[in-house]
Each structure stands twice: as structure tokens, then as C-alpha cells.
# Entry
Amino acid sequence: MTPPDAPHNRWSDLDRPPLNVPALRRGLLRPDALWTSLEVVESTGSTNTDLAGRARAGTVAGGTVLIAEEQTAGRGRLERTWTAPPRSGLFLSVYLEPGDVPVERWGWVPLLAGVAAATGLAKSAGVDMSLKWPNDLLVSVAGEERKTGGILAEFAGDGIVVGMGINVSLRADELPAPTAGSLVLAGAVSTDRETLLRAVLRSLEHWYGAWRETGGDAAASGLQAAYAAGCATLDRTVRAELPGGGALVGEAVAIDGDGRLVLSTEDGLQQPVSAGDIVHLRGVAGGLT
# Structure
């Protein structure tokens, strides 16, 4: 891993300037803030892998933010890889220690991060965002629903590491897949990564604080309602490809108190899905504005 705050190549893409680390620290590391430290590295395999390793070693504090200008082995759900050109997006992980919240409620953290990212980006980039259950960030590109970001959470040490990968300035010829998108292709009014990063982290601080204040109660904190309001998966027919094989088809009708997706199947039963890959089969997307 390249040392933090390493010098940048002056011949690199001038349309994608490096992050201003001192400015980010001044804006985010306040005495009363959630965030306790912020580090930017030039390149690494995966910020989640790095930060989780530190957490397991007990060498990192809650509220730590690790950002990479480039990820060479970014990880998504189901061990998928996530790659993008240097400085073309936001690639970061945060370490949270919600020790005063019952562990059985920690499953809401990745969904909370999705709400925080979507609301923060909608305000700062001026782009309508929606969420695909459980934790994909969607935008509209030329009328098509495209994935512009994803969230991956994992237990580590005494807390949980939450990673985010968000495509910001990727051009059409740089997209990793036809189903991918970026904020610039969705018509963002701003692609300044520092502005976007501050908005996402402040939004995450807000939602995390509200959730903790209610002991992790997703309903009382407003998190459950906010997620449902911005979830593109609800009110659509979907196919849930379940871990270990098998699939379930039905209409997505609710997000329950445990953050599970509830499907109404053809036989009239309501089946909660706690994990799996979701395929949208038809219907219209919701949005967070």
C-alpha cells in the first residue's frame, strides 16, 4: 500500500485532481464529530481489507476514514470485483463501533450507509438517486437504471467496517459493464469529489447518530421509512437468487424491521429475504431527492 498523502503524478489526468487532504480533515474532523481520523492513500487493493485488518489487530479507533485514490482489488457483494480508473470515484471505508446498539440490529448498518450515500449525493450532485436492495446505488442514464455505487459491510474487531465505491466521473467507454453508470453520465451538476465526499460523510454521521440514539431502532430513527421511500426494489416483481442456490420470484412489498426484503409470492405467501442477489424484472424505480 502506498504511504498516506503520497505525491501525485503531475502528468496524470488533470480532469481528475487529487483530493485535498488537509481541507477534508479541517472540514470533517471536529471535536464533536463522529470522524476521528482521515487518511488518503494513492493506491491500494481494497480499503475494506486494509481497514478490517487494522480493526482485527486493534490498531484503529471508531470513526476512522480510509480513502484510496485508486483501488486495484475493490470488493463488492458476493465477492465481485469493483475497479475504476484512478481518481474517477469515491473509494472509501469507515470503521464504526456501535457498541451501545444490540448486535442483532447491526444488520441495518449497510442499509443506513445506503440511505446516507443516496441522500448526500442527491443533494451535492443534483442527481436523483435510488437504492436497489440491499445496498446498490442507482442512477438513471439515458432513461435506463444503472448502478453507480455499492456498499459492503463486514464485522471486524469490536465494530463494523463499511466500504463504499461510487462512480463519479467515469465516461461511457470506461464503464466496467453495460449495467454500470456514473454521476457524470447521470447529469450531475457537480463532480467535485471533495464536495461529494464531505456530503456523504456528513450524511452518514447524521443517520448513524439518529440510529444510535434510538438504540438501533430503525423505525424510531426514521431509517426504515427513509430506506423504503428511496428503494427502487419495492413495488416491483423481482427474482431473489438465494445463497446456496435456488431462487424466489415475487413482488417486493416491504422492508421489515430487520431490514429484510419481503416478497409476496404467487401462492399468496409473504417471504422475507435476508440475503441474496436481486434482479428487477419489471416496474418503476423510486428515488431519493
Observations:
- Confidence is low (pLDDT under 50) at residues 1-11.
- Helices lie at 21-28, 47-57, 109-125, 193-213, 223-229.
- The chain has five helices and 14 strands.
